[in-house]
Amino acid sequence: MADKPSRSLVLYGDGLARFVDLSNTNIHSLASVGSCGFLSLPNAPPETENERTVREFAHLLDASEAYSIANGLKPKGNGNEISTLAERFMGLKAALVTDSSTLTSFGKLIGLDVLQLSEICQESDSFPSDATSSKLLKLLGFDGGKCLDVSLYDSVFVHIGVDQYNNGNNNMGIIDSLIGSIMRMAQPGSEIVSRLHLSLVLSYGSVTDKDVSVFPIKTPQEDINPAFAGLVPRQSYTMRGEKTRDDVRLYCPMLVAQWQHAVTRKDLVDTLSFETLKKLSGNLVIPADRFIHEVAFKLWKAPKYGA
């Protein structure tokens, strides 16, 4: 545990998990020094791409209740009120950086300051330059390699979707470039490295029936020795408190890698891929709606989730 609260930068590649390849060396470097795992999502009703984008982001921030109220799935009143992140997490100051208009509206609804990605992103040879990373870090009070006593935000979420620059596959290169630049600025010994908590989250976006067998997170029942089948406990990601989560999607989880020097544990993952995380990740699977609680704990804004 750090002796001061961390400041969190979350890079969220919405629908980009399918595009990770070996050329994304900075992403794999982050995974190799950090702690990795899966974030499970619930099954979804038929929905538009915009609805999926907002719904999955809402789960990352444990704001599915707000999503349901905003979309008329739950009536307002009778105890159903939309709470902001600051109200739920001890005054947490957070910003969302995105060019998605639908996500902008939802972000404002739950109390996020929303900034335009296109205004922050400085392109150099089609990828973000160090100036972009510097702008993002400055929002967290990291300026010129120094850690300022006061910052605009405790946490910044950067949303980059598949069609952000009308060239889906190359958006993975944008995130890879950002990670490389940020990690160069947060070298061991710098003021930044002791306070920056960096998360990379990649989702699969819209899923199809073909994905069920390609990206499963559940151990097939046939792989369990029949003699012990009745003794296998329910995994924690299928539970919420003492109640069973009956709507868990057992395939296409979000991939997550988190790193803070001398704070996060290092596991055996050396490349960020579904198969590698399934075999070697230290965090295994947690529900996506617990992600913000894990981050807020590092910011001293929430109690520890899990062990």
Automatic annotation (TrEMBL):
Protein name per its UniProtKB record: AT5G11810-like protein
Lineage of producing organism: Eukaryota, Viridiplantae, Streptophyta, Embryophyta, Tracheophyta
